[in-house]
Amino acid sequence: MTAFVIAAQRSAVVPRGGAFHRLSIEDLGAPVLLAALAACGLGPADVDEVIVSNALGAGGNPARRVALAAGLPDRVAGLTIDRQCAGGLDAVLLARALVESGAARVVVAGGVESYSRRPMRLRTDPDGGPAVPYDQAPFTPWPDRDPGMAEAAEALAQRLGLSRRVQDQWAVESHARALRADFRAELVTVAGERRDAFARPLTLQVAGRARPIIGSITAANAAVAADGAAFVVVSAVPRGRSLRITAGATVGADPAQPGLSPLAAIAAVGGAQGLTVAEVMEAYAVQAIACVEGAGIDPAIVNPGGGALARGHPIGASGAILAVRLYHQLQRGRGLATIAAAGGVGCALVLEA
Questions:
Q1: Hey, which residues does 83 pair with through a beta bridge?
Q2: DSSP 209-264
Q3: Which residues have C-beta within 8 Å of that of residue 329, sequence separation ≥ 6?
Q4: Residue 313 falls in the annotated catalytic set
């Protein structure tokens, strides 16, 4: 059985502390889910399952909360996954598997993330001492192979000889493309916001004054933490504008070099041959550059409406946002969405018009 993406919608992406800072996960996700169903002429009663990627919400099954808030039938259990940045694309791949296996006819899949409302984390002391706050959980059992994301990006820049100026130029182009793009078909108004808040007329001169994070990695060529939601509707029956899901893969790679992990996933879905558009995650400019060059993708077809450098990075939702963007960008041929995740995990999705 073939799986089709028959609708795809997203909220705006807003840096943390912005217009979405008071919204719960369900307040952010439910309107987007309902808009995706409405876009393909389906209603809550037509849904068999909801799969939601969420990386920062600390449990409680956000998928169930979003499904109930959207008025879906009680029988829709909701499945929450956490594969960090890759989770939003993984949700789509899981939906594909359910549909192709015949276990479901209609699955809504995507991601919701609120950086603004993420819970504080404390690590208990087994000897009875005070709990210790922490921001990032470990992604491997080996500290020497579990670099911070910015540190890993800088190591990649050094390995590939990519200067700060080259990275800044990528960021400048990302913002320029975002400012030229028309996102009205894919955006849902949430809390009065229907515009990606971060895109701006960035220049090399402005980027050159950006705050350094480490080495050549700066606030200009790294994506900002953000809030956002995105969903696609995956169905066994095409309706209206339907794109076939023809390939998908999630592959583990070297955890010490997470930025290169999409290369294995891209190879697993058939590589870059014949692509007409590609949505490549820009958590860091160097990561996007390395994946585009390493996979042999034509830069001219990459992120035609700008990338996460011009939007922000709502971790669990970022992969789903790529899927939404790909759905609306792909008018002919074969399109790719790909993303890297901490711990050395890469995910890729291929749609065909």
A1: 85
A2: TSPEEETTEESSSBPPBEEEEEEEEEESS--SS-EEEEEEEEEE--TT-GGGTHHH
A3: 277, 279, 304, 305, 335
A4: yes
Residue 154 tokens, joined: 């800088």
pLDDT tens digits for 200-247? 999 999 999 999 999 999 999 999 999 999 999 999 999 999 999 999
CB-CB contact of 303 with 172 (8 Å): no
pLDDT at 246: 97
Low-confidence ranges of the chain (pLDDT < 70): 58
pLDDT of residue 187: 98
Report the alpha-carbon distance of residue 350 to residue 172 in Å, rounded: 27
How far apart (Å, rounded) are the C-alpha atoms in residues 48 and 302? 34
Q: Which of 40, 313, 328, 347 is catalytic?
A: 313
Q: Whole-model pTM above 0.90?
A: yes
| Residue 281: how many other CB atoms lie within 10 Å | 31
Catalytic residue among 85, 175, 291, 328: 85
User: Catalytic: 291?
Assistant: no
| Domain chopping of the chain, boundaries | 4-118+175-352
CA–CA distances in Å: residue 66 to residues 32, 51, 168: 10, 10, 37
CB 240 within 8 A of CB 204: no
Q: Which fold has domain 4-118+175-352?
A: Peroxisomal Thiolase; Chain A, domain 1 (3.40.47)
Please give the Cα distance from 237 to 176 (Å, whole number). Answer: 38
